[in-house]
Amino acid sequence: MTTILEQMPMTAPQTIMAKQLLLPRDTTVESAARLAERVLQVLAASGTVIIDFTGIRGVSSSYFNVIFRTVGEDVGVDRMSRAVDLRYGSDAQKTIGDRSWDAVIEFLQRTNNANGAT
Amino acid sequence: MPNQIETVTAAWLAELRKQKQWAEHAVAQVPDEKLHQAIVPGTNTVSIIMKHLAGSLRSRFTDFLTTDGEKDWRNRDAEFAPGGETREEIITIWNHGWQTALDAIGALREADLDRTVTIRSQPHTVPEAVTRAVAHCACHTGQIMQISRILAGNVRWNWATIAPGKSEEFRQEMKARFGLPRVPIIWIGCKWRKGGEVGQMSNQSRKRVVIDFNVDDQWPDISRFLDRASTIVSPANREQWILDCSRCAYLGPDAAVLIAGLYERDMQRGLHPEVLLPNEPRELDAFCAFVGLKQRVQKGERPNPDHHLSETVPIHTFYQPIANAQRQVLTLVHRHFQTLSEDAEDALGVAINEVVQNVCDHAESPIGALMAGRYFQKRRDVRVAVLDLGLGIPHTLSRKVPEAKEPERALRLVVKGGVSSHSNPNNMGQGIRNLVDQVRIRRGALLLLSSKAAATMGHDGTVRYHQAPVDFPGTAVFFRMAMDDDDT
């Protein structure tokens, strides 16, 4: 299942398989930070990215929180919403991921407002 | 009667784990590109110190009791050579070294204390060798923390230790948590080599709590257990105790982690707790062995989780929220359940990971997070118990949400979701809500206990709130869920 946030017409989106960046002994946050770093690298080089979570089982909200918050803090909420497309592997994953997405967006917008950012 | 070795190894292990956690907390804040950066030319980088410490630990504690601590295969100078390892590679080296030490120290027995080991041919008693390693770790942990802070910068630094200006606040927190000032650690300066001579009392002078009823994995039984054991559950207790469960005919994984948690906490506090486990019925005796209670409280055999008859995941401790915390429970379920659906696997994984992450992020539990599980073939459901003896949900959440000081209110807030202490970048206040939802989807049952409140959810999916019979010093999460999709 795919959540199309917005299509970027300029360049073909690059897909990142989250499972390939998950190491067995990692903490959840370490895995997520590595994936977020990769997303930012792709975003710096091209317009859009698809994060594909298929094949990963049982990741918690912390995993999604770190990815979305790291990317959102770097490129901004608007750009993240336009340039990041999410592909989930299960209903549970979609529920957790979408919930995290909304919470992070709300948090970043509130933080930006508090800091006086535009 | 517990041996002094348990108190001593528990103290060593707790200190080492704390050092490891502090170092990792600091290193996590250093950008990848700065891991190999020296703050002053000619000084060691974070990566070098990590490699050196890991190399030292691996050398010292591989075949600790039988070979010299400086192994032929160790190349100490190479540890100080600048390298281009990735963060993952450094962490792998680091974890390997620490795990070697933690495993070796955890396996020590009373008789080992009198043994002599050598380090570069120099004789050391076992306590001398371990203490030397603990001091070595502390030295380098301090270096790692200081260098990391300089490299990461002050502005974004997240303190693992007491932040500047927060000393009084922390003192008050600890006072509220532990009541009276702690007594001195009992084994310092004692003749502990002659175990039993110091700090132990006769059974007659100990507080004795008898659990002579079955403790199933449901709130009425857990509540009754807490009520009966309230004096030893309280962290204000300073008396040595015996928990007599010998007349129980049933103990579930929830009771197992409760007993193990209280035992480990009070071992750390030098209270010499003792737990009497039932020898019959045979199934319960087997459960106590397979779940690791015998090993934890009676120094019994280490349980074999892969034994084909085991329906149990032994109690294990988390200090870090590894991404696949559900691995052992899933392995157990897969062994008994050939066609596990992706939905069931996902739900179980989410539930476990949410709990473990919460504990590791917020609890500051002196015993880490204890987890155990059990699979029931007839019911085709799995039960998971996770416990910490840390700050508790009302305490941590009320730092940001004052109304959460009231325990039931705190539980209602986390079950509803959307409130968070935002202690870490990964905290958005959805964890417990996700846990509850996943258990509900699988038509499971859940018990969430923290401080003076408990939340329970039965198969109807309705969450109910209760007053706990004792101010529980931490948080316990017990849940069960069906693994069969037909049941959901």
Short description:
The complex is a heterodimer of chains A (118) and B (488). Chain A has 118 residues and is of the alpha/beta class.
Element layout with pairings:
The complex is a heterodimer of chains A (118) and B (488).
Chain A: E1 2-3, E2 14-17, H1 28-45, E3 49-52, H2 61-75, H3 77-83, E4 84-87, H4 91-114
Parallel strand pairs in A: 2-3, 3-4
Antiparallel strand pairs in A: 1-4
Helix pairs in contact in A: 1-2, 2-3, 2-4
Chain B: H1 4-27, H2 46-61, H3 76-79, H4 87-106, E1 116-119, E2 122-125, H5 126-152, H6 167-178, E3 207-210, H7 219-228, H8 230-233, E4 241-244, H9 253-268, E5 274-276, H10 282-290, H11 293-298, E6 312-318, H12 327-336, H13 342-363, E7 369-376, E8 381-388, H14 393-397, H15 407-416, H16 431-441, E9 445-457, E10 463-482
Parallel strand pairs in B: 3-4, 4-5
Antiparallel strand pairs in B: 1-2, 6-7, 7-8, 8-10, 9-10
Helix pairs in contact in B: 1-4, 1-5, 2-4, 2-5, 13-16
What do you see in this structure?
The complex is a heterodimer of chains A (118) and B (488). Helix content of chain A is 54%, strand content 12%. Chain A is built from four helices and four strands. Chain A has helices at 28-45, 61-75, 77-83, 91-114, and strands at 2-3, 14-17, 49-52, 84-87. In chain A, helix 1 links the parallel strand 2 (14-17) and strand 3. The N and C termini of chain A lie far apart (33 Å). Chain B is α+β, with helices and mostly antiparallel strands and 488 residues long. In chain B, helix 1 runs parallel beside helix 5, helix 2 runs antiparallel to helix 5 (126-152) and helix 13 (342-363) packs antiparallel against helix 16. The chains are: A alpha/beta (118), B alpha+beta (488). The interface between A and B is large, with 36 and 41 residues.
User: Which stretches of chain A of 5+ consecutive residues score pLDDT under 50?
Assistant: 1-9
Class by alpha and beta content of chain A: alpha/beta
Q: Which structural class matches the secondary elements of chain B?
A: alpha+beta
Largest sheet of chain B: 5 strands, antiparallel
